[in-house]
Amino acid sequence: MSEPFRFQLQAKDGAARLGAITMPRGTIRTPAFMPVGTAATVKTLTMDQVRGTGADIILGNTYHLMLRPGAERVARLGGLHEFARWPHPILTDSGGFQVMSLATLRKLDEKGVTFRSHIDGAKYEMSPERSIEIQGLLDSDIQMQLDECVALPAAYAEVERAMELSLRWAERCRIAFGDQPGRAMFGIVQGGAEPALRERSALVLKAMDLKGYAVGGLAVGEPQQVMLDMLEVTCPLLPAEKPRYLMGVGTPDDILKSVARGIDMFDCVMPTRAGRHGLAFTRRGRVNLRNARHADDHRPLDEESDCPAARDYSRAYLHHLIRAQESLGAMLLSWNNIAYYQNLMQGIRDAIGSGTFVSHAEKISASWAQGDI
Ligand SMILES: Nc1nc2c(CCNCC3CCCCC3)c3[nH]c(NCCc4ccccc4)nc3cc2c(=O)[nH]1
Description:
Layout lengths: L5 E8 L2 E8 L2 E5 L1 E4 L11 H6 L5 E3 L1 H6 L3 H6 L3 H5 L5 E3 L3 H7 L1 E6 L2 E5 L6 E4 L1 H10 L4 E3 L11 H22 L6 E6 L5 H13 L4 E4 L8 H11 L9 E3 L5 H8 L5 E4 L1 H7 L2 E4 L2 E4 L19 H4 L3 H9 L3 H27 L3 H12 L5
Parallel strand pairs: 4-14, 5-6, 6-10, 10-11, 11-12, 12-13, 13-14
Antiparallel strand pairs: 1-2, 2-3, 7-8, 8-9, 15-16
Helix pairs in contact: 6-7, 7-8, 11-14, 13-14, 14-15
The ligand Nc1nc2c(CCNCC3CCCCC3)c3[nH]c(NCCc4ccccc4)nc3cc2c(=O)[nH]1 binds next to helix 5, strand 14 and helix 11.
């Protein structure tokens, strides 16, 4: 087999990049949006629906799966791809970010994070080594280092401490991961909104010669412009021939502006979470289907969409389902939203390939601002 993990840069348009990551389980076209699977499911959708929207890769959820059903059990059942019936690439986060946002009684020190499960209060310890072990048990194709992400705004000293700890953990994860052909481990650049700390984090991680690099520590409460400024500092310092993954981002507008600054991969709970709450993303902006103004609107969300959820159901019906709290409503809107995000990415990839990304981004943004949708 040719190199088991290969990132090919196919075109550039300014700092925007068109590429493809080839792995044994399939090829990931970049820029890519990775739907978030929580407990081995992209909530309310079947994997056939997810695949049908054009997704090449999904996120697995280390934190949730290690608590329930347990990483060793998933391994005994053949790994996450077999368990969830998703035979294509899966990326797993290390779990640290979720521990800090979901677990109770959590403690973080040089060794790692210790916490109590938000499900049954059981005590867990997650070291960098254990996080890599868990991701391996899940049979994850792209594994993330354990890191510490600091909410912003934060004091320089606090951001520096977390960034240096994350670098030490990156080295421990690199050693624990070892050499696993066909799999990859990505480092995560930290450094908050401090250019000097971003620079140090990026350069030390670059020297580790990892397969790919995430930009972490963003989309944690800072204004969009601060996030974009940190991308302009960080991306040029990362190896051009390796993929760049902006963690937890974001809205369609965040994605356009981050692709323009050199990001290749995204993940966000937004499309599925918003869908479950009745919010639909469309080419003409967002539609809140909880709103009574849709009660008699027989139009579909987007008659030109290739997604049945967008094309075949009236807004009146979707409004009814959401108001009646029918699970079909959550499913149809999650489906619409994931399809919208995948169509957004396909349009971005086509535009970079034809050197028209800037005008494409302007056209897309302008259509969101259209009048009554
Ligand atoms: N290691 C690590 N993960 C981060 C994540 C989690 C990415 N998604 C994981 C995924 C795994 C499967 C389950 C779901 C999560 C972030 N998410 C955000 N913002 C989200 C901002 C946001 C956006 C919309 C709604 C809520 C929150 N910033 C992030 C920074 C980091 C980071 O530095 N290190």
